[in-house]
Amino acid sequence: MQKRKIMAMMLSVVLATTTLVGCGSGREGSTNTSDEKKTEATTQDTASDSEGEATETATATEGFEEGATIGVSLPWLGTQNWKEAETMFTEELEKAGYKAIVQAADQKVPQQQQQIESMIENGAKVIVVGPIDGTQLGSVLEKAKDAGVYVIGYDRLIENTAAVDGVVQFGSVRTGELQGQALLDGLKAEKGDGPYNVELFGGGPADPNAPNFFKGAMSVLQPEIDAGNIVIVSGQTEFTQCATEDWDNAKAQKRMDSLLAGNYSDKEIDGVLSPNDGIARAIVTACEDAGQPNPVVTGLDAENESVEWVWQGKQYCTVAKPTQDLVAKSIEIINSLQKGEGMPATDVATDNGKIEVPIYELDPTVVKKDNIKEVFANDPDRMALLKD
Length: 388
Ligand code: BGC
Description:
By secondary structure, this protein is α/β, with parallel strands linked by helices. The chain has 15 helices and 14 strands.
């Protein structure tokens, strides 16, 4: 995904295009190159104009009634961040006076499509979506657009469709850069001089964040691999080799078990790149089971158990991307839409394969034992986990 800063003027053109193109047909699973996609979008744009859909642009920027229904469609509840999102959206939307429909789809794409479909039928004015698969929601979201519903991507990009008004997320490539840098820093701090024996893990391949996390991390690690300071003993350095289907911790643990059995019977593993906390704990457990000394392992989400592990030195670091900040930003956008003020301005956009999607980007923070009390100073629940 190519990201770039754009000027406010350009953004309003993008927003208009988003709405104009919003009524096209489903384009799931498209494998077009991004240049082809741009051409296609332009063609559709013209077609939309000739069908007179400019009127709909005007309608779509109108506000809606206070107390309206807002849908929130989450991919699953398998990691703490999504459970927090379920609770916080339910509470915060109701506090703001809306009627909330908050559902999670258990990693099953058809279930998520049906849930969104029923939110449209129930008259939702805005649907907030954390997609299971970034490319598989085009048709149903285009139905939402046809019904005049605003669509906001949550935490993950929505790909290959024009039917998205904006995405609220922590920088995904940035998150990976922080993970890669923390791994490198941890190796130097904890494992003496290199070269270091390292293995790499990625997240679920359908989640658009996962390749971006990996890409960001590899931008830091690849030069060290090239210089011989880091050795990927298994030789598995491609995202496709390292990905963890469905973000499933058990699958990650199985892969770690076999990497250790196949490559480390006569050597120690020094570090592992992990895309999130659940996978980090699976990796640490596999290393323990294999009698390996504790490697430097990264993470993401500041899950309670990993906050404890970081504090105890069992997991080297995590990355905090507070759910309350993402939910607050989403509700700020919903309020702006409700009042008829449209999507707030932002100077970041990402090519989703079809259009330049406005991104409301927040900054993630690395959490290590030495800054953990500072990072969670305003988070009493996590502070309570840091027992001496
Ligand atoms: C989220 C992570 C989460 C992962 C698995 C990603 O898209 O950004 O916070 O750990 O999905 O649920």
